[in-house]
Structures
1.
Amino acid sequence: EQLAPPTTRDNELIHLRTLPAGTMSDLKLIWDLDADVAAEEWRTVVAPELLGAVGSLLDTVNEVRTSPDGRTDNGQTVLNGIVTEEGTPEIHVQGAAAKLFETTGKTSDTTYGFYLRMPTCKEAMSHQNRGIQAMWQDTELYTDRFEKLKAYIDKYVVGNVLSEIGRIWFIVDATTTPGIKHIDHEIRDFSNDFVWFRANREKQFTVFGDDVAGDAVAEDTACQRVDGSAMWFDSRRTHQATPLPGAQGPIVSLRIDGIFTPKYAQAKTAYERWAT
């Protein structure tokens, strides 16, 4: 079975409920996957579980950071961690690395990423390996505190959209600070397969259309913004998370890296940065 080629008109498999900006009316930057992953169950069952855990997780991270010996009952500082650069300590909460979000040489001082699945080796952190199941493993935090999330992924994501999953991580900003405008990489012959979710309506996510990177994107660049809860985009395009007006925080999203099943792998090509 193959997905029909994506168009700007809704059909039973492709839903572009995005808000175009700029001058391009036929942009294909965000692939809306709400209908493919039972988004209503995500919003009503899974997202509340994720949001309910955020406060205590951030508290644990802050307690570890300020602890004289870098340890608490639920977390500890790990030297030479596998997620961070060599020699950089990282905080683990029930086996899950929690690190300040960093990309393209910039580091946020308000946003943390929590790795619910951890790499089994340093090589897993390369962009080409983040979706390889054999190179990632579940953490105690994931299996112990996110039962609904795990059941949801097993039921609606694995075997449907993704044939296997590698990294699972969620990003939390307890403030309302705009995220870093960035690209993930510029590997021309490789685009990452994943499903991205937002946990509430506090977070806006924008993908820009110009074939330029990061801060080089002009303010009037054509773009698309997330309207639903689940989507894919080519992370080689410039993108940015920002709080919506009136957002109180926390601002939370989750990304599941993996390998698309054949029909989704074929359909994503219309959205790729260097699509032919």
2.
Amino acid sequence: MPSSSLGGRGTPPPEGDEVADERSTRHRDRDFSRSSGAGRSAAAGPADSQAGHCIEDRGAGYGTASASGSAVRSSPGSAEADMPMSNYAFFVKYTYSNECALLAYNFHELVLKLGTFDLFPYKHDHRLISVTLAYILYRYQVHHCDMALDLALTLVYLEELRTQVEARPELRERGRDAFNLICYMAFLAHAFNSDRPIRLVDWFKEIGWRSFKNCHQLNAYVFFLFSQVRGFKLRVKESQVKRYIQKLCSVPNQVHSGF
């Protein structure tokens, strides 16, 4: 993975193996690898973050909640990396801010509850998917309030996908593994929510090269998710997103107990 200069607060996730609005169908042949805007730039330094900062309403009517956590960063190459740790400690260790740790932890736990890994396998540590999403969103300076919105919408997509797979089993085969499915569902959610989304070419540069030969191949996969899985529809009910935002921003019991 290309290195990033993020002030040494964390480490990139350990390695494992612009989208159209549904209100207009004229973009159905759109090339996701191209961006109509300037897109986001990678961070040149650590983004500002404060524990306990409000995950505020971003103008979409999705409600508010609060986020906090504790952060102790260390290199994955240290001796502690081989020691058993709780899930929350893992996310604290391998993300860049308190908010990223909290969101990544809760996102992982919610994906587990949805049973996504039962339908789409992933041979590496499942937690790496959430860490990877936290990494790329943080690197490209997505505010943690917007991270929560993107991850909440991703969870709605994954929840609806489970019902779709029951009716269309072929989606399991074409959906690749859980890493690609979840990451690029998150790309669609991010592209829908953001005025200046991270370009698909940057997703390819950061993580896509592991699974796809080039950005054109990645674009075809994303278009499959957009057209065949989502049916060209990215908007969902606000109540669905709000429900997941509240869950994503809930502080784990182990933090309350002084973790």
3.
Amino acid sequence: AYDGSVSAISPLLRVPRPYALAMHALMVKHHLGLRMSTDPPDDFNFMQAAKTLESSAHRALTEHGKVLFDTVCNYELSIGKSIVLRLPASPQAVQSYAVRHAKPTLLYWGGTQEVMHTFELCFRISDAGAVIFDGVKLVRREMVEDYVDSIVWEGKTLADEFDVEKMSFAAHLDFRSNDIFGEMSTRREPGDIFERGEVVVEEPWETKYVDVAANLDALDEGSSNRQTQSLRLPCGQPHEEAKTDSQLHRLVAYLNRNL
């Protein structure tokens, strides 16, 4: 299945990938001990990962590929006991391979191309009636993939895999930095919103969202190293859209829907 016609769950990213890529990742990860910066930090279990590839092996592997895969699995089960690998060869097999791969497809530059997070702005009301923006919560996550459809988490699917509770602005930054492509998403400056931890609006009923939006722009900074984030208000309106509307008291508008 060198052309991507069969997919399997990646043993590293745990998302659907072309079978050839998933098998390649299994062998390289285990036998060479190599890892990418995007790999999960947890321990790698070869046999558990191999199970995700076994079900499609009859459609994705050549006869030689099946023998090699079975031999490697048996080697793992025997905890390193020496096993002899025998692969039958013939001129016909070589010719068949040459015809099949006359126009090879390069898959190894593919994979996850972008991760997109959508966060919802959170607030609380002080005893004096001030609105205090003090956190966000993850409401949607999407991974844009090569060769397969984008993978979207939201609602129950999101809650099953990720923390969807309210997080502080600093915790939001940590969440992004620990996700894939997050290395360049952790830039901070003295006194920024991540250090202050909150934005206080003393007179919310007299304040338009456009008047405070600039303080929240860092939560809606767009793309950084193939990781994109967007901020939305509790009423569902995007931050970028709301901050350009100078006619309505947007702060009041969405507070009325959430109180």
4.
Amino acid sequence: AVTGPFTDIGHPLAKDSDPQYMYIDSTYFYDHTSEKQYLIWKRGTVTPPEETDTLLFIQELTEDGLELRGDRKIILRNNLSSWEFGVVEAPWIVRPSGQDYYYLFYSGAHCCDGSGSYAVGVARAPGIMGPYEKAPSNPILHSNGIFAGPGHCAVLPTPGDLSQWVIFYHAFIRPDVNDVRALLQDVLRFDAKDGWPQLVTNTSSPSIERMPVPPLSTFAASREILV
């Protein structure tokens, strides 16, 4: 049952054979088209200095969700010369109703070094396994004068209006960019012309004013429809 009790299977679902790599930021995706379920996660480096080569993997899960099936596949790699620097992480996949693409939201750059460079990007692919194309407008969510380093998002549809989605994420509140992060929310839409998601404020940065959203219980009931 979703309410538990939960039992630890006693071992990691995924682990790299090379101890210099760590696996974090795993997320689950159920594909209603194929009726298959997947695990998506980040491979990063454990050893300092800062990361320069990170990957996002995807692999199919067995029906009971307790084992991986088949081969893992790289679906995203960081571009060291771009806004991402050495990091891509925090994957979140959706497939909006009526769209031809799977959309992979992810975070890049440095979350916690005080620079405020952390931001959210998006990529899309015609199939769940890729290949994923990064949006030309990336990052679609970045710092502004009030909030620094927005990232590690979840994206959910708005009940009653399937063209409108809510993106939940964390960010630092300036001038403190090294301590406590706040949980924020904004509204985004998928553009009718090119299909790419963008904030309805057209600012590509966190809203300064409050953004009302439906009750969380309504979101819980609606997520299964589109993701």
